[in-house]
Specification:
By secondary structure, the protein is mainly α. The chain folds into 2 domains: 141 residues, no CATH class; 110 residues, no CATH class. The protein contains 11 helices and no strands. The longest helix is centred in the C-terminal third of the chain and has 31 residues. The radius of gyration is 20 Å and the shape is globular.
């Protein structure tokens, strides 16, 4: 029965996060915010809730891999059990294990930020679908295939790459803040551009009237091979593959 309690706590946590994020999205939409602004508001509200919860897991200590692993085993026992299978992340025969563990810990802020964006993104569609029936001030949600990553965000990715390069070629001490900050920027903005790549693929699958079942297969394959999606999303900053970067999109959003 313990696993039922754990699942119940996790579902309760996700429900609370979605509720907080949804309220922020609703407030932003009622104030006339555009979809990007509404998602940003939801992500910020989600972050204000999640960051203290994550930090409280370590009682103010600088978390080690053992602390991180203990927290994961406590909150996600089924996942950690699967990861401990031969060849998984706990396989000490893997020479890159130490690097993976360190990178995972150091990029926790970026992972939390990406989770906040995902929760807010989901909240946007839930709030728009439900409350637009109750208030004309809530606009119809834009299709996933119409989402465009704001162009200025590319500078965040460039900054992360420059910090990583500087840390490498300046021979800075191990675990320097430049390298850690660069890793977090790359993970966060890289995840955003991967989502942007998904949006582009969804646009063309919809445009070509690809059957839903085949679309699902395509999404699964591309999720596993997320590198091409990231490249597609990043190149869209300059190439505008869908030709939808115009004021008319925002007016109809």
């Amino acid at each position: 029965m313990d696993w039922l309690i754990v699942i119940g706590i996790q579902l309760l946590f996700f429900g609370v996060v979605l509720t907080v994020s949804g309220l922020a999205v609703l407030f932003a939409l009622l104030r006339g915010a555009k979809p990007n602004g509404a998602v940003l508001a939801g992500a910020l509200a989600c972050g204000l809730l999640m960051v203290p919860l994550v930090l409280s897991q370590f009682n103010g200590k600088n978390p080690s891999w053992a602390d991180m692993q203990a927290t994961m085993e406590k909150n996600f026992p089924n996942l950690m059990s699967a990861l401990k299978s031969p060849g998984g992340p706990d396989d000490k025969a893997d020479p890159s294990q130490a690097w993976v563990e360190k990178f995972y810990i150091q990029t926790t802020p970026a992972s939390v930020a990406v989770a906040c964006v995902c929760f807010s993104f989901l909240s946007y569609y839930i709030v728009s679908a439900f409350f637009r029936r109750l208030s004309p001030r809530i606009p119809k949600p834009i299709l996933f295939s119409q989402w465009v990553i704001p162009e200025p965000l590319v500078f965040g990715f460039i900054a992360g790459a420059l910090l990583k390069i500087a840390a490498k070629f300046l021979s800075l001490p191990e675990d320097n803040w430049e390298d850690i900050l660069g890793s977090n920027l790359l993970v966060f903005f890289g995840s955003l551009y991967t989502m942007g790549g998904f949006s582009i693929i969804a646009y063309y699958l919809q445009k070509w009237n690809v059957p839903s079942a085949f679309r699902f297969v395509c999404y699964v394959i591309l999720f596993i091979l997320c590198g091409p999606l990231f490249c597609l999303g990043l190149l869209d900053v300059w190439m505008d593959f869908r030709k939808i970067k115009s004021p008319t999109l925002e007016k109809t959003a």
